[in-house]
Write a structure and sequence with these properties.
The protein is α+β, with helices and mostly antiparallel strands. It has five helices and six strands.
Amino acid sequence: MITHDEVRARSAAADDTYPLLTLDEFFDGNAQEDSIAPNQWGFGRPPLAEIARRLRELERDDAVAWVRVQLHEETFEDSVEDVLAEGVAVCTTLDERVVDERLDAEELQYDGAFEGFVYDEQAFTQVPAVPEGYRVLSLVWD
């Protein structure tokens, strides 16, 4: 998992924008269950490992160009030392409903895919190219 210091350094190098993280950067070695969907952890949300498994499976689909973790703005507050996710971005040609069905939105307890990023796109850095015919959907847990 990427460290908090590495995230802050990447952000500072890109005019304090939020770097999008790969699934490996966010999930590999991450044992902090409340780093994503903290309000659902302990209330039926599957463990991080299961969320990562499903996202990786989706990312292998030919209709998906990339999947990235969108960081929570609190990650950049001075009092926070953790890497926290606000949501997940999926660059795809798939319909929101199809993404929700494949990931099982109800079981993962996210609010359903919607078009766009969780914050203005300009808030992010290291955004991969969006191929023609694809769009970005976001998954968020509230």
